Here is the input.
Amino acid sequence: MKQKMKQKTKQNLNQTPSLEMINVTKNFGADHTLVKALKGIHFKIFPGEFAAIVGPSGSGKSTFLTIAGTLQQPTDGQVLLVGEDVTKFPEKNRAALRLKKIGFILQGTNLVPFLNVKDQFRFIDQLEKRSFQAEKLDQLMKDLDTSDLLEKMPRDLSGGERQRIAIAKALYNDPELILADEPTAALDTVHAFEVVKRLADEAHRQNKATIMVTHDVRMTEFCDVVYTMEDGLLSQK
Ligand SMILES: Nc1ncnc2c1ncn2[C@@H]1O[C@H](COP(=O)(O)OP(=O)(O)OP(=O)(O)O)[C@@H](O)[C@H]1O
Ligand SMILES: [Mg+2]
Here is the structure.
């Protein structure tokens, strides 16, 4: 028995982080317009972990998430996704990686304006060259309280409904890494708690790594670890 326990601990220790950042910096502009948005970030998150990042406006939270999700390149340092250094990947490869491995919930939603809710998901299936995942969608819609919105166009949804559909879209593809930038900003308290619980569930039960930026400290109670971003530097609370 003891032997078994030991083995398990060892396995955990040897687990590859879903995301690792090594001394990541990001500068915008130059000379008198230079902004040092990230000043040397070291970060690791493992499968099954739900991390929150809090911090003042302009401190670098969104910059951190977009670099984690390969939407932007760092000025310096390395970004490893499931052990693979993606820092020098060409854009074409990074786009394929994003589709397969990352679920984004960004500030402002990521819905295609000319597709109804159901077709937003069919579109993902087309990109992935697979058939429609009706059961998966059905479950997500139930979890996020959006089942009656399937035929609606994005312009006919409220801000909070749009946000919940965007969250369902991020989870639909079974990503390794979920990156959420203020996912509850447009939601009432009840839906906000439901959404964060759903994200916690996805991390803990499906063994995903999830990073959520939030201004709402009440939401951090569901997180395993809370970081603070201040002036481009990350520290654990
Ligand atoms: N594309 C850009 N060009 C120039 N400066 C930028 C760019 N993107 C971000 N910045 C600057 O980098 C800093 C960090 O911005 P970031 O968006 O990461 O902040 P944040 O912590 O997400 O803030 P908020 O809570 O308001 O969303 C800010 O000073 C911002 O003005
Ligand atoms: Mg931001």
About this structure: The chain is about 35% helix and 25% strand. Confidence is low (pLDDT under 50) at residues 1-11.
